[in-house]
Protein 1
Amino acid sequence: MDVPGLVDLQVNGYKGVDFSSPDLNRQDFITACEGILQSGTAAFLPTIITSPAEVFEKNLKIIALALDEPQFRHRVLGIHLEGPFISATDGARGAHQAEWVVKPSIDFFDKLLDWADGKIKVLTIAAELDGADELARYAAEKKITVALGHQTAGEDDLDKLVLAGAKALTHLGNGTAKNLDRHKNTIWAGLANDQLTATIITDGHHLPPAVIKTFIRAKGISRCIVVSDGSPLVGLPAGRYKASGNDVVLDVSGRLYNPNTGYMVGSSATMLQCMNFLASLNLLSAEQLVQVGFFNPLKLIGVNANDIKPLVELSFDQRKNRFAVHK
């Protein structure tokens, strides 16, 4: 079965290149993008996480200019801004640094949008924060997809943000506290909200198979999207590293975590690897896999599937139940 491609809405870096690093330069960014596009990802959103203002200014400008390169048109589709308007609490903040978290601000968002030359495609914010609804409404009016994540939001918070234009949940089940109330928590609230599409990380480490199965059944195929949340350490060997401002361990199993907190620090998997792990669970047909890995993400950000121009060919082997790249 031929596959039109895979679209990843959340990629933080590749093979040592960190899109949120103060040391990012144009050539490293271009090299990382070329590697991602050769790995089986047809199109993606480079993602910048919560950072100091000077890093946002420098890196957003670098990325925005590179997106104009001919080889990235219809392949690198815009920028995912994951923060800085997120929860500052431990757990919900995930690997983001507390000192760089900012309260929702239209004025500061305008600066970010200007530095990005208007190329922000997805904005992740925490729904419970004061001013989150105003910021969501403002971003939505500019045709930016607002996603809710790294939060402690309850049902009322999510309902309020949906009315303001929010469309999605960023990596549901992750970016949340280790211990939650059995019934009243942000995961149940997100699952129950039929207006919000859930992105999920299916690398085999962020979510157990039973949770993935439950999320897909609760949300339905049409409201599920696979993302890799690929870290700057994708493609590197096991070892100890510094990534996203954290001391991290990349285990031989592929699990990437901060040994001091135990929290995950993105994934070490490509989109292709995430899709193959999901395929191995035998939950979805080949057509359904393509929907959650290609058509649904494009629909969420308002991109026509016919516009995507993959660099490599992808197929799905029904007998082996896995995707493969043909270069």
Protein 2
Amino acid sequence: MWDNGAIPTTLTVHKYHGQILAHEANFENDTRTKFGAPFIDLHRVDLQRALCTRAEQLGCKIHLNSRLTSLNFDDPPLLTTVSGKTFTGDLIVAADGLWSVCREQYLGRKDDPFPTGDLAYRIVLSTKDVEDDPELKSWIENPQVHFWIGPGAHAVAYSLRGGNMYNIVLLVPDNLPLGARRAAGDLGEMKSLFVGWDPILTRFLDHVKSIDKWKLMYREELPNWINEQSNLVMLGDCCHPMLPYLAQGANSSLEDGAVLGTLLGCMETKGHLKPALKMYEQLRKARGEAIVKETFKQRHDFHMLDGPEQEARDELFLRQLGMKVQSPFPSRWTDPDTTAWLWGYDAIREAERAVAEQPYRSN
């Protein structure tokens, strides 16, 4: 996993036409010093492969092509797949994403997510794609994080796979039809949305050969993440899907898994399952839902239309450029209070502390 990642040395926020609003020249070193680990950018496929490989090393059996059609919550619970296979177990961990079947089965009704009003263009380029432009190639090979924020939209770009690949995400107003999740994008339409933006960003866009666009969705909060029978527990996007504006969707799901795994690992009898799940919900639900709300706030601050509010935001940015940033700050990627809350959280330590303070009692 580490070989396939890229560790950015700096983080920069630009106004959409290119002006630098915030810059962390020592982003890598400061992150390591504050949080004991680097900030790493990973391709989702590389992360999933690493997780699957490790799970199999630990004895997990992974069944592919096993889309869930139904489940019941008897003792033991029963899952049925499209192929007709059935599975039973002590606990169902519902980690099936934004369009969760487990969530609908838990609620007993159809439960589609809601559109946010934004969509994402997702672009991946390699160094070979930009061989004709040495400056763009250098941007890919020397990992950094760059944001461009503008009226009603913003872009973020960063290196992957050891500086051989570049990921660009464009967040713009949604024009997909209701019910559409994803569609092929039109290059001309995409480029027209960024006319007048920073030339280095538009040069990257000129090298794009094809594009997809994804509708960004959200869900209402659930009253509980575990069922009454204590044989279903939810984590990740099925219970707290997040807008990508803080890049916390996968991160918070990993936190969920780390807490849940630690708490289950502390069990001594099956009778400890109910208190373990309750403790998981207590540790994770409020935090996950708070991060969801914070992503909407970052969307507001990055997508301001030109005018007095935007001018005040830019003045706040520029007043602290080159200085030690003070909270509150319009970029939560740089705001010291927000980064301490997001990146300073130790999921395993929090779970171990909770068990030590409140040992399990069997039903």
